[in-house]
Write a structure and sequence with these properties.
By secondary structure, this protein is an alpha+beta fold. The protein starts with 5 loop residues before the first strand and ends in a 28-residue tail after the last helix. The chain has a four-stranded antiparallel sheet with strand order 1-5-6-8. Strands 3-2-4-7 form a four-stranded antiparallel sheet. It is built from five helices and eight strands.
Length: 202
Amino acid sequence: MTVGPRSEFFSPLFGVTAVLRPDGIEVIAPWDPDAPGSDGDLWTRAANGEIKLVSVSYLPRRTLHGMLGITQEIMDRKLTFYEVLNDEQSKAVQEAVLQRLEIEPAGTQYREWAAEIREFDRLYGGTRTCILVWGYVWNAMFAVAAMIGLGGGLDAAMHGPGWLRAYRRKKRIKQGRCARCGYSVVGITGACPECGEPRQDA
């Protein structure tokens, strides 16, 4: 049973660092700005405002919505940035990272991930939302069954089953009371003065 939104995160498939310089963007891997070939102590240069370091990962996510039946599925296939970027910077960093993935040797998973990210971005803007009709059908069927069950339960509670009603009527008649409402009809001829039920003798 699903109650409210539930997210399923997959393990990060890769993580890189994007170095934003005035003359362009360089993507280095892994996430270590002090890695060989990272052009020295990038942390110090970033702290001085010469450059900006952005940690980037690819973290696919699937979110499900619904109560009993799942009614909505949201699939995210986009890069996650761990720094605040404006729209222009986000697009530039994403393009640089994808280009870096696409130059990996043929047949590697990196090229497939880059293609997947590009396809989702082109078709859905990075996030695909699916409405699952069967989830709504299931929820509606459950609601109807619950209402029918509740209505039947209330009816049984108010009036009791048929055999119980018959037993009560016979008992009331033997005690000299109205079979319908239980009012005493001893010495009264005709209908019950309380509810109008014709008098029945035991």
